[in-house]
Each structure stands twice: as C-alpha cells, then as structure tokens.
Fold this sequence. Notes:
The protein is an alpha/beta fold. It has three domains: about 1-60, CATH 2.40.50.140; about 65-210, 3-Layer(aba) Sandwich (Rossmann fold); about 225-290, Orthogonal Bundle (Ribonucleotide Reductase Protein R1, domain 1), CATH 1.10.40.50. Helices cover about 25% and strands about 25% of the residues. It contains eight helices and 15 strands. The strands form four sheets. Strands 10-9-8-11-13-12 form a six-stranded mixed sheet, sandwiched between helices. A five-stranded mixed β-barrel has the order 1-2-3-5-4. The longest helix has 16 residues, at about 170-185. Bound molecules: guanosine-5'-triphosphate (GTP) and zinc ion (ZN). Zinc ion (ZN) binds near residues 243, 248 and 253. This is Small ribosomal subunit biogenesis GTPase RsgA. Its EC number is 3.6.1.-. Its main location: cytoplasm. Belongs to the TRAFAC class YlqF/YawG GTPase family. RsgA subfamily. Keywords: Cytoplasm, GTP-binding, Hydrolase, Metal-binding, Nucleotide-binding, Ribosome biogenesis, RNA-binding, rRNA-binding, Zinc.
Amino acid sequence: MKGIILKGIGGFYYVRTEDGVIECKARGKFRYDSMKPMVGDEVDIDLDKNNKGFIVKIHERSSQLIRPTVANVTQAYVVFAIKHPDINFDLLNRFLVLCEYNNIKAKVCLNKVDLCTEEEKKEIKDKINDIGYDVFFINAKKKEGLDDLNSGLKDNITVLCGPSGVGKSTLINDFIGSIHMETGNVSEKIGRGKHTTRHSEIIEINEGYLVDTPGFSTLDMNFINKDELKNAFPEFDDYIGMCKFRGCNHYKEPGCAVKEAVEDGKINKSRYEFYIKTFNEIQDGGNKKW
Ligand SMILES: Nc1nc2c(ncn2[C@@H]2O[C@H](COP(=O)(O)OP(=O)(O)OP(=O)(O)O)[C@@H](O)[C@H]2O)c(=O)[nH]1
Ligand SMILES: [Zn+2]
C-alpha cells in the first residue's frame, strides 16, 4: 500500500493511505540508514498479521528541507508585509534563491495590504513580476485575498516562509482554521505557542498539504556553491549556452549573454546585482555558509 507521511512522533509515523491514516513503524533497515523516513515522504507500507503498519520503502525525494524537516515540498508561499516591516528586497531575493535551490516553486504573498495605497501596490507588483514571480496581495488578519492561495494548495506540499512579523502564523491559522472548522476539529490547533518545540506536520487541506510551521527562517542558512547559485536564477535560463565561454559565471567574462540581457533591460538589474553580490560572498570552489 502506498501513502504519504503526515507526521512522525517518537518512532511512529502517521501515513495517509487510501484506507485512512495508518500508524506505522519503520522497518529496521531505515533505523541504521541515513535515509530515515521524513514527514512528506511517499512510502510503501505493509501490514503484518496483527494489522500493524510498517514502512518498507521510501520513494525518491524531489526536495528535502532541514528546518522544518519535510520532504517533497513543491511550493513555497514567500510571505512579506508591504509595510511593518517594509519589504527587504535583499532578503526576498534570498528566499527566492533558497526556493529555487531546493527545487521549490515560489509564490510571493504580500500581506498587510490594508496598510498601503493602490499606487504602492502597483509599484511593488511590477517590481516582483519583473523578476519573474507571481504576486498575491492579502490581508491575513481579515482573511482577504486568500482564494487563489487556498486553491493553489491543491496537489502541492506547501511551506510558508518569510521574515519575522510579516504574518506567517496568522496566514497558517487562516488556512488551517478554515479546514478545521469544516471538520469540526478546532481545539487541536488553537493556542499553538510560539516558543514551544513541536514536531512538524503536514496538514491535509484543499486536496494538498500544508506544512504547519514556517520554513527557511532567516536563521536557516543553506549551503550553496557558485554553480548552484547560477542555477537558482530562473531568468538566466533563457540564455543558457549562449555565452561565449562554457561554464560562464556571467560575471567578468566577455561575450556573456546574461550581461547583455541585463544591459538590454531584459533581465532586472537589481536582481543581477544581487547575483553578483552573492556570488562574491561565496568563496571560490567550495560551499560557503550564507
Ligand atoms: N495590519 C495588518 N496586520 C497584520 C496582518 N496580518 C497579520 N498582521 C499582524 O502582524 C503581526 C505579526 O503577525 P504574525 O502572524 O505573528 O507574523 P509571523 O510572520 O508569524 O511572525 P514571526 O512569528 O515573528 O515569524 C501580528 O500583530 C498580526 O496581527 C494584516 O493583514 N494587516
Ligand atoms: Zn554568461
């Protein structure tokens, strides 16, 4: 039987299958393996003669986050506030690069729309669309503008990320609150303390899954090397193979198609500058902690 791990506590894994959620243990081989089951894993399970579940196979992962520890996240809602705190574009770019690096599709959610004017909205939207990402304006406090984000959960494992104070917890509660109201199971999710350590979990919602804690906290600094960095800018993809030198870093090399595209205004200049700044932060040859 196939399923997906919703949560893991104390050696037990709760696996969503066609026949409901089944409590499973991992077969011995996984305990000694570096590849332990993770929340989000697609697994095969067997039932023994006492109807106890065992994980017998873990399918290949498309992505693997460390904090929270969740496999196969497909999508990130990258949450920033329009104001309070103001958008820090450097930080936004970091989140976007981390998403690309982790093979996760990013959608930019701009919260606290109640605090800005239409002109301000347009200006920010143009800027973010220009670097190639969709923008969703929301008011998490009043649960406004959430329809597209709610329907976007379908068929995805979604994590919310973004800096402190932008409304991530409010938004997670908006999503989870609606589902728990539907199922009448409100109590479990109320009063989730900020400082209590808890296991992460993916919550079934709108035919998809939502990671119930924010990911990529600003403290999460991933390892990334220069080639991985280059590949984390989707706007460079159109120019792959067009630079004069193979393995061009789009930096000081002559005949660089990416640099030409920047000069022609086809690639956003501030994103390119962010690329160069980050490139310089990464030491030659090896991985450097951001
Ligand atoms: N004006 C306004 N305030 C909001 C909105 N959404 C959330 N807030 C407020 O913003 C503050 C921060 O919200 P949180 O949900 O705690 O933010 P967070 O991103 O989870 O913050 P951390 O836990 O520090 O990472 C709270 O006081 C919220 O009430 C909104 O749409 N408009
Ligand atoms: Zn180049």
